[in-house]
């Protein structure tokens, strides 16, 4: 019986280089995600994975090692967008008065919708595949909005005769608006009008 081949010499796999490679891989992955988020928001389904890899300064093979398919990349992006939107709610609530925090968060919601629209086809594929991403993020955005609305109502800076589902529906309507060159600007104006309506008739507005 032939003996097993001897193990590779220790010197070709030193520990420090391995750690550097892991750090490089982590940086490459994060850069790919950052570039991809911009690409999908700006070009939607036409975003090229090859172009994303080029702008991230890596080869397409590196992209595929991290994300074997477009849907793998989209799943990470979608989760990242949800978490960033929810984190923004917390940050704004601590930094701004309640109605301003709500207004700024709803403007950030436009950017979230822009990214989501750009990933629409892949998100449908993920949904059909029963991906856990939707189960894990379900309700996170609604909860963030609810907290901001509750704080603004308690502060008296927006009306109290509103339902969170009405605001959610109004914001979600942005998603289905025609994809025109001025879509983002129009959406921001609509969000401002929505916020004006929430403030109208509030206790503070009557003072």
TrEMBL record:
InterPro entries, sorted: Homeodomain-like_sf, HTH-type_TetR-like_transc_reg, HTH_TetR, Tet_transcr_reg_TetR-rel_C_sf, TetR_SbtR-like_C
SUPFAM superfamilies: Homeodomain-like (SSF46689), Tetracyclin repressor-like, C-terminal domain (SSF48498)
Compositionally biased residues, Basic and acidic residues: 1-13
Record's keyword annotation contains Transcription: yes
Keyword presence, Nuclease: no
Region (Disordered), start-end ranges: 1-25
DNA-binding interval(s): 48-67
GO molecular function, one term: transcription cis-regulatory region binding
PROSITE patterns documented for this protein: HTH_TETR_2 (PS50977)
Record keywords, A-Z: DNA-binding, Transcription, Transcription regulation
Domain HTH tetR-type, chain residue ranges per copy: 26-85
Matches recorded under PANTHER family: HTH-TYPE TRANSCRIPTIONAL REGULATOR BETI, HTH-TYPE TRANSCRIPTIONAL REGULATOR RUTR
Protein name as catalogued: TetR family transcriptional regulator
The species this protein was found in: Phyllobacterium zundukense
């Amino acid at each position: 019986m032939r003996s097993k081949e001897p193990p590779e010499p220790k010197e070709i796999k030193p520990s420090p280089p391995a750690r550097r490679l892991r750090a490089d891989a982590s940086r490459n992955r994060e850069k790919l995600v950052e570039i991809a988020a911009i690409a999908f928001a700006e070009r939607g389904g036409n975003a090229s994975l090859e172009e994303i890899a080029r702008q991230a300064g890596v080869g397409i093979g590196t992209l595929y090692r991290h994300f074997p398919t477009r849907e793998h990349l989209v799943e990470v992006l979608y989760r990242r967008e949800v978490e960033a939107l929810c984190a923004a709610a917390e940050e704004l609530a601590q930094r701004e008065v309640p109605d301003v925090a709500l207004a700024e968060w709803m403007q950030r919601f436009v950017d979230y919708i822009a990214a989501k629209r750009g990933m629409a086809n892949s998100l449908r594929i993920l949904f059909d595949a029963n991906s856990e991403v939707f189960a894990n993020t379900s309700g996170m955005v609604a909860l963030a909005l609810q907290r901001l609305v509750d704080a603004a109502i308690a502060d008296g800076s927006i009306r109290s005769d509103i339902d969170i589902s009405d605001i959610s529906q109004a914001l979600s309507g942005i998603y289905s608006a025609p994809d025109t060159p001025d879509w983002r600007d129009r959406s921001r104006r609509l969000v401002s009008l929505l916020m004006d309506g929430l403030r109208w008739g509030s206790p503070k507005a009557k003072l």
